[in-house]
Every structure is written in C-alpha cells, then in structure tokens.
Amino acid sequence: MIRREGIINTLIFLSLPAVAGAALLLDEPFTITLATRAAILALAAVGLNLALGLGGLVSLGHAAFFGIGGYAMGILASHAQSYVPLIDTWIVIEGTKSMPVIWLVAVIASAFAALAIGALSLRTSGVYFIMITLAFGQMFYYFAISWPAYGGEDGLSIYVRNDFPGLNTLVPIQFFGLVFTILALVLWAMGRLAASPFGLALNAARQNAERVETVGLTPFRLRLVAFVISGAITGLAGALFADLNRFVSPSMFSWQMSGEFIVFIVLGGIGRLFGPVAGACLFVVLEHMLSGVSEFWLIYVGAILLLVVLFARGGLIGTLAGRAVAHD
Amino acid sequence: MTTLLLIEQVLNGLQSGIMLFLMAAGLTLIFGVMGLINLAHGSLYMVGAFAAAAVAGATGSFVLALMASLIAAAAAGAVIEMVVIRRLYDRDHLDQVLATFALILIFSEGTRWVFGSFPLYLDVPAALAGPVTLPGGILYPAYRLLIIVVGLAIAAGLFLLIARTRIGIQIRAGESDREMIGALGVDISRLYTIVFALGAALAGLAGALVGAIQSVQVGMGEPVLILAFVVIVIGGIGSIKGALVGALLVGLTDTLGGVLLPLAFGVFMDASTATAVGSALASMSIYILMAIVLLYRPTGLFGTV
Amino acid sequence: MTDPLLHIEGLSKSFGALKATDDVTLSLKPGEIHALIGPNGAGKSTLIKQVAGALVPDAGTVWLNGRDVTKLPTAARARAGLGRTFQISSLAMEYTVLQNAVLGALGARGSVWRFLGNVMRDKALRGTAERALARVGLMEQALVRTSELSHGQRRLLEVAVALTLEPDVFLMDEPMAGLGADGSRRMTGFLDDLRSRAPILLVEHDMDAVFALADRISVLVYGKIIATGTADEIRANPEVRSAYLGEEIVI
Question: Is residue A155 a contact partner of residue A241, using CB atoms and an 8 Å limit?
C-alpha cells in the first residue's frame, strides 16, 4: 500500500509539469497559468499542512500570511514602479522588482506575523484556537481595506511581473518552472522535516501532548516554531500568487481563502506530504470545469466537500491508495 | 465632539452589540451543549434576512417579515441539524469546521441562485422610520431604539428560559454532563435539534433586524459570524452571560473606536492622515481587545475551563 | 543518612470543600523503593499529579535533587530528573514502539531543534531507545504500532520510555495493573533491580508486589498520610488495619 501511495504521489506531482509542458506544445498559455496557480495554491497549503497535518493545529487564519506575502510583493513592486522610495527619512529604502528580495521580505514579514498570532492563540487550544486564528485573519483583512496608502479596498496593480536573475518571468512556462522548483524544494524540505527530531516531537505533541511533556519537551514551543515556519511558507506562496496575478487585494486576506487552504489539505488527504498538492490540483481543475457548467459552481464544491468529510476521510490519495491515515 | 454625538454613538454601539449577542448566544449554546463549532451560523443569519426581505416584499408587513425570519431560520437550522450536523458531534473540530464550511458554500450559492447577486432591501416600517426624542433632547432613530429594546427583551427571555424552564434545565444539564441527561431519560437528539433550531432562530431574527438597516445580500453573515467568535473568545465559551458582556464590549469598542480614534489622532496630525490612521487602527480595535483578554484570561472573562 | 532525592513538604490541595491532599510530607532516598498505598479515593492520583507537575498545589513544596520545583511545569520537572509512568498509558498511539522510545531519548537529549536529519537514523538516540526496549523485553515489538499493543505491553513501553530519560527519580503509577500474574512477577523483579539506578516512588494496588519490593511504605487515607514505615511496621499498625477494614487485602 505504501508503494502504491508513493506511485500516486509521484504521478500527482509530475502531472503539474506534464500539463504545463503539454500546454506549451499545444500553445495554450492559459493552461500553463492554471498549472502555475495550482502549484502556488499547493505551496500555500503545504505550508498550512505543517501546522495542521503534523502539528494538529486547525488554523483558520492562514490567509493572513498569504496576504502579507502578497502585500510584501505589492508594496515593494509598486514603489519600484513609481520610483518613490518606500522609506525616505534619515534612511532611504527603495522598492524593488527583484523576486528573491521580495520573497525574503515576504517570508520574514509573515514569519513575524505568525510569531505574534501564534504566541497569543497557542495559549489556547481546540475550538478557541480556531476562532482566534480566524479572527486575527479577519483583522488583517479589515486593516488592508481601511489602510488607504496601498489601494485600500481596490488593491494594487503591478504592471510588469517582477524579475528573477536569468529568467524572463513574463513567459508563462518560465514562471511556472520557477514556481514548480520552489514547490519541489519546499516539499523536499517538508519531507525531511517530518522525519527529523523536530518533526517527531511535533507529531507526538499532536497525538499526545502529555507524553511529550513527560519526556521533558514543551508542546507550546514546538507548536509555535511549527506555526512560524508554516506561516512563512504560506507567505512565500502569497508573494508568488500576487506575482502571478500582478495584482494584490484584501481578498487575499479573506477568511474564504483560509477555508480553501484547509479544503485543499482535506481533499488531498490530511497528514500526507502530497495531500495539499493533490487537493489544490483537484480544486483548480474543479474550479475550471465546474465554473464552465454553472455560475454557482461553488455549490458543487460544497456538496463534494461535505461528502468527503462525512464519508471519505482519507481524501483523494487515501481513496486511491485504499488506506486512511488515522487521525484522532 | 459634543456629548450628544457621543451618546448617539454609545447607543449605536449598544445596538450593534445587542445584535451580536443574538448571534453569539446561539453559537455559544450550541458549543456548550453539543460541543460543536458551527461556521454556518452566519448562513442562518442570512437565511433570516432573505426570508424577511422576501415576505416583506410580498406582503408589505414588517411583523410578518420578522416572523418569517424566525421560522425560516429555525426550519433551516432544524433541517441541517438532522441531515448533517448530528453526524458531526462525535467528530473532531477539523471535521466540524470543514462540514460547516461546506454548508456555507451551499447556502451562499443556493441563495444567490434563488435571489440573484443583487442586494435586496428590507424597509424599516413607516411608523418607525423617523427619529424619537430621548431625554436631554437627543434625536435617535426609532427603529434602532426598537432593536435595542427587542434585543434586551430577548436576552432577558433567554436568561429566563435557561434558568426557569424544563428545557433550560436540560440544557444546563447537557452542558455539565452529557451522559447525565441521557440517564435522566431526556431524548438527547430531540434536545439537540431544539437547541440548534433555537440558536438558528436567534441568528435569523438578528439578520432580519439588521437587514433593515443595512442591505440584505449573500455573504452578509460571515463578517458577523467572525465578530460573534470574537465575542465568544472574550466572554468565554458556553457562557450566555459572557456572550452578553462580550457582545456589548465588542459593539461599543467597534463603534466608538471608529469615531473616537480618528478624532484622537486629529489632535496631533492633519485631518486626512488622522482619518486614515485612526480608521485603520479602529478596524483592529476589537481584535486588540480580544488579544488583551487572551493575555490575561485565555479562557475568556466568564469561561470556566 | 543520605539526603532524599525527592522530598515533598506540607503539600495540600483542595477541590472546594474536599481536601484531596492534606499536608502531605514524604521523601525518597537514593536506592529505595517507597510505596504509596491507600484505598480508592484516598487522593493518590491527585498527589502524583502534583509531584509530576500536572497540578499546582495550594500549599507546600516539592524538592527534586535539592531544587524547589513546585512552580515548574511538567516538562521542566522531567528535565530536572523526574521519570514518570502513567496509570492509564499515555503514549503516542500512532507511533511505533520504537518511535515512542526514541521520543524519550530525544527528550533526554533536549536538542529537539534539528529540522533535517532523520531522527530514526540517529545512532545515539536509537541506541538509547533500543537498550531501554530490550530491558523491558519489547525489542520484538519495536516496529509494531503502539495502538496495536496489549495493555500490559503498553505498560512496559511506558517504563521503557521512562528509562530512556535516565531519570534521577522514578514516579510510577500502578505499573503492575493489567500485567497478569506472570507479568507482575517479572515487573517486580525488574523494579527490584531498577532501584539501584534510581529510587522509585511507587503507587501500586498489588499488595504482594508492594510488600515484596518496598523499603518503606506510606499509607494515604482521605488525603492524609496516616503511617510511614517498613513493611513489618505497616502490617502491625492498627490505624492502617482499621483504614483497610472491609477491603479484601491480605496484609
């Protein structure tokens, strides 16, 4: 069974470049963009999966980090395109169009936000934690709407996609390649992390916090570190998402976004490294197919999700591999 | 700023707080008795508002509209309890979150399907459309005043229901010990359906009452739902008293923050910057309030666990 | 006279009007097994929780290795040298037996902030874990999922994880429960050896085991220690006899 799951994982993972490659040959740039979108959403959910799948932390506020990553890109790039320095006092900080710099800022900013939100919300557990993360996510949403400097409710448009050394990011397949490479690297790191000393302890804290304390480890610290890494990855995905759309708006902070990240993980199968990838791909395919069928396609997504939750708890990979990962 | 304006804003805060209470009371009851986190509570708020708008449009009667909101939301609540929710009581919180998130999608898109994407308008009845003069010469909209009175009356009724009636005793027993009420011979699944429908009816009524001030549209429920969560985190899960205190705190902080903070910043900033900074900070004020409560009382002001 | 490794002084805890722990003073010296017995509802679990750090006492002090640990949480007490086993097994049930033991070894080492290396391939951690499993006779089950173990085997795994911590003091809550006659006998022999490594505060219902093992016995009744002494002294104590009157216990 484990082998079968490994094969399914590989197939799902490789389907992304396969689709993008086929689209390139058939000259369908929109399909490449869809594959890029799926890969970015997968990355955001892979970030959340560290907190949710491994750490058991049901965060309903990860859109906060996604949005912070998006705005890191939007703010830096908008200053670069208007040639107005970001800070112009005794120290001058210019905007930038460089992706690596933007990513770094996105990761650091979302990590700090995750540290603050995590330090407060991890004092509680269970349903409190869910409500608090949801509320803090909403706080960022309202802040983005009411802060007029960067477009307020309307958001920010960036005219040209940001630069990456040696690539022409405006060519869809090149940008896809960049995003896919990041996704692959992060998945590799997550696989290592799950098997690492930290991963062992974090996963044990999800199963039985008392046991972890009894061997001298502190679940709060393990969870906080997991939450920060998780937020940082989702923040990185946010920066890429904004770059894909060349647009950032408060909707990246919306609670629906947070809900969808959880949906990706559960559609794919919770507690599985590739679950979020499968879930995000499935979601993007459903979105693309169903939205052609009906304006009200989300109703079908709701029905499918309800059926998966009530009857197919192993998610897509679990159903295909015929084996469910137990979770309490 | 004049005292009169301040009093008016306090009343507005009270009004929004009391509506939040109607939402939060249902949520906290459902959590206290059944241990369920229900994200779809905002959908029931929306169902109430749409039912009221539709009935008011057809009959022109505001009273009928309010009754329709209660009945439609309670019925919707009872149906989803029997079809979906009762399968979730023994599940973990993640499954509850997902299933009720799915319900939001179904309710929202379903409503859009039936009523379209444009907002509906529910008019305040003509008799209540004007202002009333309060002691001290304050002019205040009669309808908003009515909302405060109705809300307080419902809050009092709810406290009586829980303290005095048979069903209230069962609810309290259910909160403290779930096996106990089974042993007492209470039909648990019926009790759960009733509690859920009661919570739904309160949400639906709030949706209708607020719908007459704002517009009635798809997605109106979720911002209120999240505010109600903030209320519950502040007040403490399962406590009706906590829900009332939390709701008033949140309503007042939100309303007064929006007015006072820009004014406060105006003291040492130019007007437009002050408005920007002040309103941005005001949008965060209730979350900061929640953070402060969490620092000192992680289980909320009236939480027991 | 050697200094006690664990010393509890004047510990008290009330729940409303109920005094669950009433001015308890107790010590554990190097090399000894000190058994804590008492009828059901005497407050043994409440006392254990306060020693382990899961419950904060209303008054009194817990000294571990000469250090006041009363205000320290569970994890810090474990790091200070306390190895606890639970009455109802408390393990990571999705993990294999070996993973649970490696978790213990990891906790003992303390350096959990490593994010890339494979923890199950860490020779030192694995060595510690396997030695502990071998000592309790669980090596054959090393790769079995913990949820598939019998109750008795889970008990043994609890003890094995405590061994990986190499604690200065063991705190064991009914290690014999669910082991059966044969298992109890083996566990008795095992604990008999273990005391030379670190002393054991033993809460146990199996009186045969208690009287065979304990250097000293304390009797807890209604939250109060009514007697402390050797097995013979406890057997002869009239107060103990009357406290146990009506209970089917052969003393």
Answer: no
| pLDDT at C248 > cutoff 70 | no
The answer as to whether A34 is a domain residue is yes
Q: Does residue A62 fall inside a structural domain? A: yes
Tell me the shortest Cα–Cα distance from C104 to chain A, in angstroms.
5
Within a domain: A29: yes
Q: Is the dihedral of CA B281, B287, B292, B293 positive or negative?
A: positive
C79 to A72, A215, C29, C107, C141: CA distances (angstroms): 41, 8, 19, 8, 28
Shortest CB distance from A259 goes to which of B101, B229, B276? B101
Using an 8 Å Cβ cutoff, are A102 and B264 in contact?
Answer: no
The domains of chain C, with CATH numbers, are 1-81+170-175+199-251 (3.40.50.300), 82-166 (3.40.50.300)
Strands A92-93 and A87-88 turn out to be antiparallel
A123 touches chain C (CB under 8 A): no
C-alpha span between B301 and B294 (Å, rounded): 9
How would you class C17 by CB atoms within 10 Å of its CB: exposed for 0-12, middle for 13-18, buried for 19 or more? exposed
Question: What mean pLDDT is predicted for residues A298-308?
Answer: 90
**Residues C32, C229: Cα–Cα separation, whole Å:** 13
Cβ–Cβ of B299/A124 closer than 8 Å?
Answer: yes
Q: Is the pTM of this model over 0.95?
A: no
Question: What CA–CA distance (Å, rounded) separates B123 from C186?
Answer: 81
**What whole-number distance in Å separates Cα of residue B204 and Cα of residue B224?**
12
State the helix-helix crossing angle for A63-82 and A255-268, rounded to 10 degrees: 120
Tell me which amino acid residue A207 is. Q
- How many CB atoms are located within 10 Å of the residue A256 CB? 17
Please give the pLDDT value at position A194: 95
Top residue of B97, B250, B302 to mutate, by most chain A CBs within 10 Å, is: B97
Alpha carbon distance C170, C156 (integer Å): 14
Report residue B203 as tokens: 């949400």
CB B216 within 8 A of CB B121: yes
Look up tokens 């969560």; give the residue: B229
Q: Do chains B and C touch (3 or more CB pairs under 8 A)?
A: no
Distance in Å, alpha carbon of A196 to nearest chain C alpha carbon: 5
A:B CB pairs within 8 Å: 121
Assign A327 a pLDDT band (cuts: 50, 70, 90): very low
B74 vs B96: CA distance, rounded Å: 20
Question: Do A212 and C118 lie within an 8 Å CB cutoff?
Answer: no
Query: What does each C-alpha distance from B148 to A13, A109, B53, B205, B210 come to in angstroms?
Result: 56, 42, 21, 13, 11
Contacts of B104 in chain A (CB under 8 A): 259, 302
Sort residue C140 into left (φ over 0), alpha (ψ -120 to 50) or beta: alpha
Using the structure block, give the residue that is written with the tokens 């209660």. Answer: B70
Answer yes or no: is pLDDT of C83 > 70: yes
B90: closest chain A residue by CA = A328
- The residue whose two tokens read 């640990």 is C69
What residues form DSSP beta bridges with C37?
Answer: C219
In-domain check, residue A317:
no
Neighbours, chain A (3 or more CB pairs < 8 A): B, C
pLDDT at residue number B143: 92
* Nearest CA-CA distance, residue C139 and chain A, Å: 20
B210 Cα to chain A: minimum distance (Å): 20
Hey, what amino acid is at A244?
L
If one counts the domains in chain A, the total is 1
* pLDDT at position A10 over 70: yes
Mean pLDDT is lowest, of A86-90, B22-26, C96-100, for A86-90
Res B180 pLDDT > 90 = no
In whole angstroms, what is the distance from residue C123 CA to residue C129 CA? 10
Structural domain for A60, as ranges: 24-254
| Residues B31 and B37 sit within 8 Å (Cβ to Cβ) | yes
